[in-house]
Amino acid sequence: MKKIMIVDDSSTSRMFVKRCLQTVLSGQDETEYLEAGNGKEALAKMKATPVDLALIDLNMPVMDGATLLRWMKSSPKLTLIPVVVITSVDSPANRDELLKLGASHVLSKPVAPAKLMPVIHEILDIQADDGFGF
Length: 134
Description:
The structure is a single chain. This protein is an alpha/beta fold. Helices cover 41% and strands 19% of the residues. Helix 1 (11-24) packs across helix 5 (113-123) and helix 2 packs parallel to helix 3. The longest helix is centred in the N-terminal third of the chain and has 14 residues, at 11-24. The protein is globular.
């Protein structure tokens, strides 16, 4: 079972990302979704429960996504977790900085299944269904 952490201060955004992921991962093994409203909450949950992937918003109160990413990449327990940053502040400089900090991918809002699919399949090493069942 895969465990995916969704971090966003908007419960509506978390729900939308979760639905997109459910669409992308339909037909795969069961997936458990963990949610957090800010980076500090996410950090505590990920230290208690290992996850396979984290999708984090950049702009959040208490602890923003860049700070969470820095903490994750400096923690021996969390450093190997792939991180997809989802942001409304998408510029080449911002994207480059987040990738240097250790993000696997940076996606601009709004997310959609078509935008998430290649990223999630690459990170979780899922083969695309070619329609022939293999």
